[in-house]
Amino acid sequence: MQRKQMDTTRATEIAQVLTQALPYIRRFVGKTIVVKYGGNAMVDDALEQSFARDIVLMKQIGMNPVVVHGGGPQIGKLLAQIGKESQFIEGMRVTDRETMDVVEMVLGGQVNKAIVGMIQKAGGRCVGLTGKDAGLIKARKMTLTKQNPALNEPEIIDLGHVGEVAHVDTHILELMIKSDIIPVIAPVGYDDEGHSYNINADFVAGAVAGALKAEKLMLLTNIAGLQDKQGNLLTGLTHAMVEGLIADGTIYGGMLPKIRCALDSVTAGVKSAHIVDGRVQHAVLLEVFTDEGVGTLITA
After folding, report:
1. What fold does the segment set 31-299 form as a domain?
2. Which of 75, 200, 261, 279 has the smallest count of CB within 10 Å of its CB?
3. For residue range 170-201, what is the model confidence (pLDDT) as tens digits?
């Protein structure tokens, strides 16, 4: 069999990349890294394939990736097909019983199994779960409070079957990690009465990372990361620095929940949290194996 001759310049570039990655491979072998997968990376074929290869490569070299995924656009699409309008309050999907049925069908079925198939096609071994499997995610009902000038007390807003994480039982995840299986988790939880709850995937990823005492939490987003008021990317942030950015209004709106999730995870024992640009191919590997990364780093 005749081998194709590789260009020496190209070969040198590949060797340099591998050499740069080696210290990080040594550092993170045996470590758990929780990745929240969503946004553009879920709807672009090239990004899907690069994400799957990243996760498989991490597992092959001895890391323990755990994937938590979202699926808001897919839920909205199916609701529209059955003639049900999506309603949001402060970024949260109002989830009545019928909507919750759709959420479970889409997240636990369609999206979860598609991601499992994608990772297995790339050479990995993985199992899809929802938070209801093996008692993984105990939830409690979430309510919003809103100040209403016409009332003496804050107005309580009922979002239906929208929950927050009360407890993560890591037993099934630890068994899978020891068996070299990649867990893929849909963000659906349950309460003591058996009711199902739709939970924000960022918060599930943060809670899972904290419960596992993960080395890293990585939140894939549709932006470059956290930026200052001039549009410059911020990274290498501590808890105190982030609180200052919240106080001065640099962090606001849709970025606030992600930042709070990242802060909660490092407070719970996660070594570092990363807000990562999921629009970049191989974003996960670039954040793990390079000095520069492709997002915002937050540490305790």
Report:
1. Carbamate kinase (3.40.1160)
2. 279
3. 999 999 999 999 999 999 999 999 999 999 99
Q: What is the pTM of this model?
A: 0.88
Q: Quick one: 67 exposed, middle or buried, by C-beta within 10 A (0-12, 13-18, 19+)?
A: buried
Which 3 state secondary structure label does DSSP give 176? helix
Check: CB of residue 191 under 8 Å from CB of residue 139: yes
Question: For 232-267, how does the pLDDT look when each residue is reduced to its tens digit (9 = 90+)?
Answer: 777 777 778 888 888 887 777 667 778 888 888 888
34 strand-pairing partners: 66, 217
- Other CB atoms within a 10 A radius of the CB of residue 277 amount to 22
Helices (H), the chain: 8-28, 45-60, 72-81, 97-104, 112-121, 171-178, 201-212, 239-247, 255-267, 283-289
Tell me the C-alpha distance between 91 and 33, whole Å: 27
